[in-house]
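# step 3/5: fold
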Amino acid sequence: MRSIQKTGTKELGGKLERSKTSGARYVLLRPAGYPLKSVFQDYPEVADPRLFERYAREQWYGELVRPGCYLFDRRLYPDFAFKVIRAHPHVSVVGSDTKIVVERKKTDAAKIKSEVSFEDVVGQKEARRKMKIVESFLSEPERFGKWAPRNILFYGPSGTGKTMMAKALSGKTKVPMIPIKATTLIGEFVGEGSRQIHGLYKKAEQMAPCIIFIDELDAIALDRRYQDIRGDVSEVVNALLTEMDGIHSRKGVCTIAATNKIEFLDDSIRSRFEEEIRFGLPNAEERL
C-alpha cells in the first residue's frame, strides 16, 4: 500500500479558488509519464476513450484544471501524470459532464544500438559458435516454429565477456538490446515488480526483433535451499517465468540472462532456458 496519495493537481502559478471557477466543458490531456523514468516502465495506453472519460471524471471530479497543470492517476497507475493542454473555460474544474480527451501518443521507439563486434570478445570460440543459431532467430524469427532459442543463459566467471557477447550479438544482427540488472526488477510495492516485468516484455515486443539482457540473474533466482524467498522477489520470478514460457506470445523477443553462479540457480528457472552457454577464462594465447 502506498502511504501517500496525491489528492490534487500540480499546476503552474498560484492557487485559484474553486468557488470562483466554472465547470469545464472540455479538457485535452497529454500523457506526461512518471516523475522518475526507467527503461522497463509500463506506459499505459487508453484502450477505450469513452471508458477512460468516465474513469477520469470519477477520480478527478472537482479538480482545478487549466493549461499547464498536471493530473496524477491515483488508481490503476499511481503517479502517472497527464498534462492539461487545453481547457474550456480556460480555468475551470472537472465536472460530471466534462468531455475529457487524451492525445494519442506518438511512438517512435528509440533503438539501443551497439558498436561492439564479436572480434572485441576475447576467446570464447565455443560461445561464438553457439550464438550462430541465435543470430538466425533474430534475423529471421518467422522461420522458427515451436522451438526457437528465445531464452539463453550465459554463465561463467566475472569479466569473461558475457555482457560484451550480448552487445556483439545486438551489433551483428542490428537488433536493439534492453540491458537491465535483475535487482532493479524488484518493485517497492506489492504487484509493482510483476507489472514492470510484463511492461519490459511489452516494450521489447514493440521493438521486435529485440534482445532483453538480464545481468546478475542469481540475485533473484537462487535455489530456495540457499535463501528464504521474499514475497516481492517470488512475484518477480513468477512473472519472468510466465514471459519465458511464452504464455504471452512475444514474437521476435530473445531473453539472454547472465550469472556468475549457475550452480546456485533454482532448477525451475534453469529449465526455461533452451541453451546454456559457458564462458571460461581466456588462455595465454587468447589474451595476446
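# step 4/5: annotate
Residues 130 and 239 are 27 Å apart (CA to CA).
# step 5/5: archive (pending)
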